[in-house]
Structure prediction request, 594 residues.
Amino acid sequence: MSGTPDTTGGRAPDHAPRTVVVTSMASDAHTWNLVFLQLLIEELGYRVVNLGPCVPDEVLVEECRDLRPAMVVISSVNGHGYQDGMRVIRRLRAADPLATTPVVVGGKLGVTGDEDSERVAELMAAGFDAVFDDGADPAAALRGFVHSLQAGPPALAGRAPAG
Amino acid sequence: MSEGFGAFVRAHGGEGRLVVQPRMGFGDPHRMREGLAATRAADALTVGTITLDAHTRVGHLQAVERALRDGSDLNGYPIVSHEESVTRWVLSAASGPGFPVQVRHGSAAPADIFRTLTRLGLGASEGGPVSYCLPYGRTPLAESVRNWRESCEVFAGLRERGVEPHLETFGGCMLGQLCPPSQLIAISVLEALFFIRHGVRSVSVSYAQQTHPGQDREAVAALRRLCGELLPTDDWHVVVYAYMGLYPVTEHGAYRLLGQAAELAVASGAERLIVKTVAESRRIPTIEENVAALEYADRTAALTGRAPDPGADTQTYREAAALTEAVLNLHPDIGEALLRAFRAGYLDIPYCLHPDNRGETRGRIGDDGRLLWERTGALPIGRIAGSHRARPVTSAGLLEDLSYMRRRFDEVAVEHRTPLPVPGTRGTGAG
Ligand code: B12
Prediction:
């Protein structure tokens, strides 16, 4: 999408930087979270494709199928994250090349502000590689996750470390 | 014709009095009904709100149905999906003469919503072709303009049923943060003109509290002056939104910021205020939290007087007038003028990801707390706004600007005057 800020923060590695998709889901219109995450992940040395707000399921799956990203970072803050997330992760996992792509979600996932461990477990069981609570420092959380990827395939059981 | 939303607010707000309103919305009809009744019963001069959920906003009625079936909480009231008899029952708790109710949604394709409102005889809503498009998703702006034109015309049909339809612009908010006031004012005025051209005769113009009280007072004065100059009706009022960016997390911070919004509203002669609650930074607020916020704002308003007029010819006014005039000169049809304006970069929202936004402008917070233009792109205000050195954007830098108000209000600072004690804590003078 247009309007994404130009950045100078990230130090790209010598080889072509790998691509990360940053996205919201169908019902969520918030974008400051996406702009912030884009900058953060660029600073970690990746190229970011920011799909923007209210991304329909089909668009999300298609874009990821085409881009074959190193990671998909989903953000939801409007309180529908569990509902939208359960639906979206099933569709991503069902799309062949995305069966093992690292996919994480974070933000404010429900409308009650509590961390609901049952729902986090459901999201993990449905196929997310990590679910980040709103309380977690996002920079530390993502850095930790990226390092764990570089160390080997994502083998995170349960909730991702909050950093 | 029954007293509509606009007439009610103009009769009871302004000249030091303030009508206060929550941003309330629940998926469950029982809770929604209770919420309206509690808003009406609050010890404040209130109007009611039904905020719609985010699936309804994008027209995903299947997702609403799934949530209702699974018992998942929605972030608002799904007015298109609930039976109309259910919504009538919800409204019957409170709505009526002396308590108008407004429906708030956030849809760039609102025809279904407006048809539902028209059938229900609900005469007040809000939004706009720009403000419910660019910050709210990916609908092309041209489509939003078409949809909003049609929706205004549908809504205007309410007059045949004895209800005067009222629309509020959401243009005074846009992304909530880091857009200097002049562009918020311009979009608010342009959207009000759009509503009026398409048959809605009673309007309100919004302005969201930003980062500096003096600049905000200037902004509301500029908004009032421009409305006086450009709107072909007297049936308009100003609504202030309590801060629409990252909200303080502490209770004292949340109330101090709300108090400052109430002061801004009264001091600048605004008629209505939409409040924020202590839950804002985390989750959807409860009914009780909403009532506490309404009452706190009302008490603060009662202690506040009208401030001296900041003068007509401020920089904020000059920028807003230049933007509005440049856009209006682009085409006699205001919808078309808005489309051309975004194409030409005469309007350009900082940090907005929408493909129809050029993305060449940038706002930032100056050392004194005022919002400044760091880059004006193709906005026709380059000379008025002056230039400020543009810095590279980093995630930490962005978050620092976004958290400016949160940081300041969460700090325990010495106030220039004793603030009202926050509800639920002991103290005197809580009235
Ligand atoms: C600005 C704002 C808006 C603007 C958005 C403009 C835009 N284009 O972005 C407007 C006014 C349009 C808006 C609209 C709505 N909003 Co709003 N909005 C906010 C507000 C005030 C600030 C958000 C913000 O700017 N954040 C800045 C970014 C940088 O921070 P963040 O979003 O908090 O994300 C941080 C973390 O969550 C984390 N994070 C986020 N995602 C991820 C992902 C990963 C992987 C990781 C590791 C971390 C992470 O990192 C970020 C930095 O710390 C918040 C309340 C608040 N926080 O104070 C409400 C809020 C998010 N909105 C809310 C709601 C409900 C809505 C609406 C549905 C209206 C309604 N019913 O009230 C509509 C949305 C319509 C839709 N279709 O979604 C609720 C969500 C409630 C919930 N989850 O329980 C909030 C919390 C307000 C409230 N208390 O009611 N909103």
Remarks:
- Strands of chain B lie at 19-21, 48-51, 101-104, 124-127, 166-169, 202-208, 236-241, 272-274, 361-365, 371-376.
